[in-house]
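Can anyone check this?
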Amino acid sequence: MKDTDVKILLYPHFSCIFSIVLSVFVPSLFVENFSILETHLTWLCVCSLLVTTVNLLLYSVVKPNASSKRSSLSHKVTRFLKCCVYFLGSCFSFHVIFVLYGAPLLESVLETFLFAVILSTFTTVPCLCLLGPNLKAWLRVFSRNGVTSVWENSLQITTASSLVGAWLGAFPIPLDWERPWQVWPISCTLGATLGYVAGLAASPLWIHWNRKRLTYKNN
């Protein structure tokens, strides 16, 4: 593995982190009394939109898994529609999982769904950008020793850190601290966001430290 392979990761990862920082400050220019806690749903929408846009732009420029074959317009449209279906399926799947794990079934439906949207943004969107709507590729990447590039290693780390962050964020909710960030699902969404940022920051470092023992099947 070349050091340049790891360095290339830094620019997209920094851009994604910067998009999250922007989601905290930019809405305050347009929304009165904006804050992550008081207008949490607005922030979730803005954050999801910015992170998704940045991912789409970055992967379209970097093209880590670019195919040598030219695809037709109909193929591109079909691929885009499949990606939309996969993303919506991910959102609804996460929503169902949250309800099964104790989220309100009828109350706070919008809050729960937007939590599912932001978690899908951190996990499913990068998968779609890198691997496309290909379940076999997804299963390969998230299986043991299935990665074929530093990009897929990074995808593993950021996806896992986002999910772990969301899970850890649920722990303070039942405590009787009576803090505003304990309202469902604020602590979970903040946990997922911090986990995603931590994964973006840590994955290039982890890959760099382990570059001598990391081998890829296509290398």
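Reply from J.R.: I decoded it. The chain has a mean pLDDT of 90.
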